[in-house]
Design goal:
disordered N terminus; Signal recognition particle alu RNA binding heterodimer, srp9/1; Rossmann fold; single chain; Helicase, Ruva Protein, domain 3; elongated; five-stranded mixed sheet
């Protein structure tokens, strides 16, 4: 065994990782407990097979199988002492010598009319064999079927109540007992408004008489609406944990099966179980899988999903609110839900679980880093400021990634450098330092990223640059310029959108300015720039030529990036004007960015060469380089008429 001084690297990694997440080691507690014996059907089958082999080869008498001709020859020689004639075989005993034992034999019976006559002539003791058909059927069919039935019953019992053939109609909801939900509101952070909305639900479940005395009626259903990862499921569990009531959790997709009527039967069974254990909470996750608006089936007909939805609507109307059954559901696509679900009397209250602001992100980071050994230099406030748009799941992943990185480096604490690298990993993907790239491609990427960074630092409304890197990351990112917002923003002005558009075009224009050639590296930049310009013209009414009119009527998801394709509601002539206006906006920004990079060509060259040398440049270094440039050029950029496009 290896000594303590000869630990393997993976052992050190496990020790570091366990130290980051606290000294609580459930494995050590389990060592003190006696091991539990787990019975398995495989143990029974193995023992049964061993006993069969033992009986067949060791305990059963050895019988020699001989041919019928050899049997007749032995009979003629007087070697047969006893014979039992069966319907299909003949069993008997051959005489042995003085020192040899008698040998049992068996042979196949052949139609031989003279067999009995020869046995009488040789004075052989013979008899017939009678086989009972009942015993034959018993051993051939009934007992094996009984064994298989016992095994099947045992397997169905081990699978659980929801896996049997006759239990398709049973609800698959996971039931957490009153003390089974350990999550409370102290485990939820960053969504204070949503918690306040649900405090009333908790109070009703704890003390329903308070509301019933005044004639108040608690909402039957609460719909949690928010982006993926914001903590909707966690919030529902916290409500059950605070109220200390049973918690039924099920996904919307678990209702619908391939068999017709199964979904509706499961809805009935779920509400029946919940009513018997009231007060309780029913939580349906991903409600949009079940509650999509009816009539959207392009094939027509009344499909199984709509039948399940109808049953859910009936059940929500069927039970009284004073029974203490609260229905909670979560979705990130409320715009596609059936209107009948959202009317008063069903999901009366809709609670928005929004992305956390900087204070909320800091509170979430404190919760997830509670068991992580952090360096005193780690400022969670700064990390929260660098992660705008992150939801609770993203922040939990960020803390975990930082702890793993520190453990790999055999550090005693998680430092700020690990959080910085974890943010890069979450946003841009894994580093690919070993990717082989030609010097020419690396030079193009360096100038491309330098163009983005210089334009971002030269514009008034652009977010400041935090880091520039030419290390490939993720699937397709050959380099990236990371900007750090100074504050959370919920509205964007026209000037801010134009500056964002300019930063996106900075890389492409830098390539054209330096090499006189363009590459495919700006494909994603151009796509995002076009989206901004199109939204300004068609959605935000920021075009003086087209006026205060919106030309898009697409049905967009509220919390998801992708959108449905909408039909055009304007003429072809207006569509041509929209295209011309989009091109004009992009072209004006293009000329503005070209002027900025031309007048700061020396900084562009220095930054690109520094990137080729160091691969990563911090934003402070770029700002120092820009401050050394000519003040006249800087003033000229900010006062240029091209900065204010019409």
């Amino acid at each position: 065994m290896p000594s303590n001084q000869e630990k393997r690297p993976e052992d050190n990694f496990r020790e570091k990782l366990s130290s980051f997440f606290g000294s609580h080691d459930p494995a050590r507690k389990k060592e003190a407990l006696p091991p539990k014996a787990h019975f398995s059907i495989w143990y029974f089958l193995i023992v049964f097979s061993l006993l069969t082999l033992l009986q067949h080869y060791f305990l059963s008498p050895k019988v020699e199988s001989i041919s019928y001709s050899k049997f007749k020859q032995s009979l003629a020689e007087g070697q047969v002492s006893k014979v039992i004639i069966g319907p299909e075989s003949i069993n008997g005993t051959l005489k042995g010598g003085e020192e040899e034992k008698h040998q049992d034999f068996v042979t196949v019976r052949v139609e031989d009319p003279n067999l009995v006559k020869e046995l009488d002539e040789r004075k052989v003791n013979y008899s017939g064999l009678y086989q009972s058909k009942f015993l034959n059927n018993l051993f051939s069919w009934i007992i094996p079927l009984g064994i298989f039935f016992v095994i099947w019953r045992y397997a169905m019992k081990r699978m659980g109540p929801g896996m049997g053939v006759m239990s398709f109609s049973k609800s698959k909801a996971k039931v957490f007992a009153e003390d089974g939900t350990k999550i409370t509101f102290t485990d939820v952070a960053g969504i204070d408004e949503a918690k306040e909305e649900l405090q009333e639900i908790v109070e009703f479940l704890r003390n329903p008489e308070k509301f019933q005395r005044l004639g108040g009626r608690i909402p039957k259903g609460v719909l949690l609406v928010g982006a993926p990862g914001t903590g909707k499921t966690l919030l529902a569990k916290a409500v059950a944990g605070e109220a200390k009531v049973p918690f039924f959790s099920i996904s919307g997709s678990e209702f619908v099966e391939m068999f017709v009527g199964v979904g509706a039967a499961r809805v009935r069974d779920l509400f029946s179980q919940a009513t018997s254990q009231a007060p309780c909470i029913i939580f349906i996750d991903e409600l949009d899988a079940l509650g999509k608006a009816r009539g959207m089936n392009v094939m027509g007909g009344h499909d199984e999903r709509e039948q399940t939805l109808n049953q859910l609507l009936v059940e929500m109307d069927g039970f009284e609110s004073n029974k203490g059954v609260i229905i909670m559901a979560a979705t990130n696509r409320p715009e596609i839900l059936d209107p009948a679900l959202l009317r008063p009397g069903r999901f009366d209250r809709q609670v928005l679980v929004d992305r956390p602001d900087i204070n909320g992100r800091e509170a979430i980071l404190k919760i997830h880093s509670k068991n992580v050994l952090l360096s005193p230099q780690v400022d969670l406030r700064k990390i929260a400021a660098r992660t705008p748009g992150f939801v609770g799941a993203d922040l939990a992943n960020l803390v975990n990634e930082a702890a793993l990185l520190a453990a790999r480096k055999n550090k005693e604490e998680v430092e700020a450098a690990e959080f910085d690298e974890a943010i890069d990993r979450v946003i841009a993907g894994l580093e690919k330092r070993k990717r082989v790239m030609s010097p020419k491609e690396k030079e193009i990427i360096a100038y491309h990223e330098s163009g983005h960074a210089i334009v971002a630092e030269s514009l008034e409304h652009a977010e400041p640059v935090h880091k520039i890197s030419i290390i490939p990351r993720g699937i397709a990112a050959l380099g990236y310029t990371q900007q750090q917002p100074t504050e959370d923003r919920y509205l964007l002005t026209r000037s801010e959108l134009l500056d964002r558009l300019a930063v996106l075009l900075g890389g492409r224009i830098a390539e054209d300015l330096v090499f006189g050639e363009i590459s495919t590296g700006a494909q994603n930049d151009l796509q995002r720039a076009t989206d901004i310009a199109r939204s300004m013209v068609t959605e935000y009414g920021m075009s003086e030529r087209l006026g205060l009119v919106t030309y898009e009527r697409e049905r967009r998801p509220m919390f998801l990036p992708e959108s449905f394709s909408g039909s055009k509601t304007y003429s072809e002539e207006k569509a041509a004007q929209i295209d011309e206006e989009i091109s004009r906006v992009v072209e004006e920004v293009h000329q503005r960015v070209r002027q900025i990079l031309s007048e700061r060509r020396d900084v562009l060259e220095k930054l690109a060469h520094l990137l080729l040398e160091k691969e990563v440049v911090q934003g402070e270094e770029l700002r120092r380089m820009l401050n050394k440039s000519e003040p006249e050029a800087q003033a000229k950029i900010h006062n240029s008429p091209s900065q204010q496009p019409s």
